[in-house]
Amino acid sequence: MSLTIMLETGPIERFKKVGNYASYCRCVQSNRFSNCKSKGKGNRRNGNKYLSWAYIEAANHALWNYEYVKRYHQRKTAKTNNVVAIKAIAHKLARACYYIIRDKKEFDPLKAFA
């Protein structure tokens, strides 16, 4: 997974903010709202489908193996459904990977899943 993420991301400097990277990884929604009313969906297929797949797989792997991710998943599943909860974990992992690649530091799970 890490090799796929690294190669599909390319140079991290091309993303100004972590939100731009998460959007490129298809980890955020592309809805448009005006006056609390939905005005359509943006370009849902914009971004890298392989990064999206890799982060979903990483989220499932983390859910099976790490207790703090399981607790976060249970909290999210109580409010929404399972698919949204997995996507939220993938989003957190994508944000963490952005900082790991940019700053060249180790992953601290307590910062991401406190």
Overview of this protein structure:
The chain has helices at 2-9, 18-24, 49-65, 67-79, 82-103, 109-112; strands spanning 31-34, 37-41. It has a two-stranded antiparallel sheet with strand order 1-2. The radius of gyration is 15 Å and the shape is globular. The two termini are 24 Å apart. The chain is 62% helix and 8% strand. The chain has one domain (2-112). It is mainly alpha-helical and 114 residues long. It is built from six helices and two strands; from the N terminus they run H-H-E-E-H-H-H-H. The mean pLDDT is 90.
Task: Write a concise keyword list for the protein shown above.
single chain; 114 residues; mainly alpha; two-stranded antiparallel ribbon; 6 helices; 62% helix; 8% strand; globular
Brief summary:
The chain is mainly α and 114 residues long. The chain is built from six helices and two strands; from the N terminus they run ααββαααα. It has one domain (2-112).
H/E element order: HHEEHHHH
Q: Which consecutive residue ranges, at least 5 long each, have pLDDT under 50? A: none
Mean pLDDT across all amino acids: 90
Shape: globular
Largest sheet: 2 strands, antiparallel
Helix content bin: 55-70%
Class per helix and strand makeup: mainly alpha
Instruction: Indicate how many domains the architecture comprises.
Output: 1
Strand order of the largest sheet: 1-2
Number of strands: 2
SS field, number of helical segments: 6
